[in-house]
Amino acid sequence: MGNCLGKSDKLTAEIVPHDGTYPTVRLYGSPTNIVTAYIRFALLHKAVSPDFVPSSQTTRFGGSEPENPVVLQVGSETVSGSRETLLQYIDNRFPNPPLTTTAGSREVEEETTPLIVKMTRLQHKSMTWHLERMVRWADDLAARGGRKAVDPALGSPRMEVKKFAKSYSQLLEVMLEHAQMEERVIFPILDMADRGLCKAANEEHARDLPVMNGIKEAIKSIGVLDSGSPACQEAIFNLVARLKSLQEQCKQHFMEEEMNILPFMEAVDLSNEQHKRTLEHCFDVMQETHSRLFSFLLEGLVPHDAMQYLDLISRCREKEQLVSIVHAYLSC
């Protein structure tokens, strides 16, 4: 149930040689180099924890290329070059899960899709994944009647409910910031082009808020009940029903936005620079999500989507900010 990937995982099975030993994986590069940050991020999503060897970042006289480029060493193989070259090598060397897309119509479609639409869809994916996880977790609680978990890592029933409450609170924060981002950035742009276009979506946000806050209070109530008691069991079954209702409402809401609202962003008369500034405004509104809850957000994305999300952040953030975000993610 943790928020960080690959902390205790071994190297992926595809690289295990016949003698059962693992090749040494080392990454050489400057800690402040954006390419270094990308590659460390990529390897984490391959469940590979390399030995990172930091080097100083210097620049050739009169040029912009670093004297100490990023170098990846896997066993006896060594590769360096651009971010794309390194990512392609990583995907070839560690096939699963894939980080890059294959050539084709999907890439062309991605290039024409407004940045803010890509970001919104990826956030929808993450929130959907977390909602599904909370429902499965609540179902498991109900099946055990609020009694002790089989997994000792979850602790006592009361400890488990506290962990459940923390996870739901994090999801609630992300969902609330996401709704604020849409209401303050996306919807006003679309309403200027077609007044009333986002009226239904705004109404759904207002409808869902009491439901989401009610679930948070219900979880608190379960935490003070005697585990395994009839009252506790009844409260958990009620919680499952409310979570499933919220899950269905959000699924429908996300689908309607992606089918009936977001496509109109392509028709809005904005320049590339204006699209970039709009995306930056979205990240500004969602400051907590992209700092304190960033690892939680990415936990809900498959590695390829997580890499896409990092690419979006790189479009409108200074390199130093992006490196700081990745470092914080890697150290969580």
UniProtKB/TrEMBL annotation:
CDD domains: Hr-like (cd12108). Transmembrane segments: none annotated. InterPro entries: Hemerythrin-like. It holds the Pfam family Hemerythrin. Residues 116-264 form the Hemerythrin-like domain. PANTHER family: OS01G0861700 PROTEIN. This is Hemerythrin-like. It comes from Quillaja saponaria. The lineage of its organism: Eukaryota, Viridiplantae, Streptophyta, Embryophyta, Tracheophyta.
